[in-house]
Amino acid sequence: MGKVSRVHHSRHHHSHHKDVKKSQKRVVKGREVSVQHTTTDNKIDRAAQLVLRAKEWASVGHAKQIIKKYGEDKLERMLMACENISTLTDYLGMSKGELFKIAKYIEVKLKHKLKHGKAYLRSNKTGLAHTIEYKSKRAFIHLGQALGEGCHKKVTRSIMYAAHAPQMVANCSGDKTVKFEGRILTKLDDAAGIAKTYAVTSHKAKHGKKIYSIFTKLYNGHTLRSYEYSRNKLGADEEVYVACDLMKGLESMHEQKLAHRDLHSGNFMVHREVVDGKPKITSVLIDFGQVVSFSKAKKLLPRVEVSRHLITPESLVKGKHRPDIRKIEGFAVGYCLYHLFFGSAPDWGEKLKEKNIKHMSRKKKASLSRKLARNIRSTLDKRKRDLEGMDNKHKGLGLAILALLDPDPKKRASPHAARLMLEEVIRHIRPHE
């Protein structure tokens, strides 16, 4: 009995165990079916959500068609691009529907066009609201909104397309002058204190002439000139950072043996932004149309800089040692910083006219050089006395500016030396930087 009972119990236990296993399998299968249903439901939900999200930019039918033909991810990239681009400015110069068409074109058709060598796509050919240009793995949407104009170029707004982080950029376009600037900026790629460049492009205009474009970062501030005439806009700390960045820009150029030659306050951009929740101010050099090599710059003496009032005393005298181009350019930036710091441009008491200098005898030039040096020295001495009552921060900045303007080229600070002086001031402003 005991044996039978045990056998019976064993069979019953085995049968129960099988039933449990079957039950578990059914449960597992049921769970698998449930997961499959959930995944399918999620896919349907995502597609429905994308279609709903697309209503702001395109019709429901159009959105469904894109999902069917190109997939959900592609539609999401288009929507993300449109949403992010729309936050860049209050006025894009096109409707939401037109922006969506451009995003679709870039995401879907641009690759095919590039295979056929078409990188400049006119709006009248594509049927889009704006022209698209592609270079250096970046697509640019030409908005055509004017920012400024020169004799050989014009500057307009463009959008550097990206789904996640599009940017508003400056598009400087023109003839061979812009081509030359593009070469310089390519050489100075991402150098400190130099306007950031994203791409340099070229295309043939309708009339057959070649047009060159430089796409650079769009600096949201003003040029230094606007701050010179309304000094309350910049605090003392900010002036130190601006001056330090301009010295870095000069150093970047001089390392390549290049002279800017057009160093006036209209060619220094000041940019304000918030980084990690803190306000930040930077400045960069722009406009490189007058750039020459150091060797060519020396042949232009006494007038290396375009502006006449930036002629230095040593430039007027011929001797064994040719003037240091780096210090001449430092003098030019120092002149602008003097205006910013003291509230008015320095007056050396001499009207330097190129036509007069050109026809002067060597003796007269030497006499003018000595007189100019005396006048500069007199002005700087007076300003040094003004600095005595100022705090260390103001005094440090003022001394760095005056060091750039010393009439004696041997005592005059180079941009590198001036930067070190300014960085010392910055260390006192923010010790942990």
Structure, explained:
The chain has 433 residues and is of the alpha+beta class. It folds into two domains: 102-217, Phosphorylase Kinase, domain 1 (2-Layer Sandwich), CATH 3.30.200.20; 224-429, Transferase(Phosphotransferase) domain 1 (Transferase(Phosphotransferase), domain 1, Orthogonal Bundle), CATH 1.10.510. Helices cover 52% and strands 16% of the residues. The chain contains 14 helices and eleven strands. The strands form three sheets. A seven-stranded antiparallel sheet has the order 1-2-3-4-5-7-6. Strands 8-11 form a two-stranded antiparallel sheet. A two-stranded antiparallel ribbon has the order 9-10. Helix 1 (2-54) packs across helix 3 (72-86), helix 8 (236-255) packs antiparallel against helix 10 and helix 12 runs antiparallel to helix 13 (392-404).
* E-strand count: 11
Rg estimate, integer Å: 33 Å
Based on Cα principal axes, name the global outline. elongated
Count of discrete structural domains: 2
Averaging pLDDT over every residue, what do you get?
87
Helix/strand-derived category reads: alpha+beta
Question: What is this structure's SSE topology?
Answer:
Elements: H1 2-54, H2 60-70, H3 72-86, H4 96-115, E1 120-121, H5 123-126, E2 132-135, E3 138-149, E4 153-160, E5 167-174, H6 176-187, E6 197-204, E7 210-217, H7 224-228, H8 236-255, E8 258-259, E9 268-275, E10 278-285, E11 292-293, H9 294-299, H10 325-342, H11 354-358, H12 362-387, H13 392-404, H14 415-429
Helix pairs in contact: 1-2, 1-3, 2-3, 3-4, 8-10, 8-14, 10-13, 12-13, 13-14
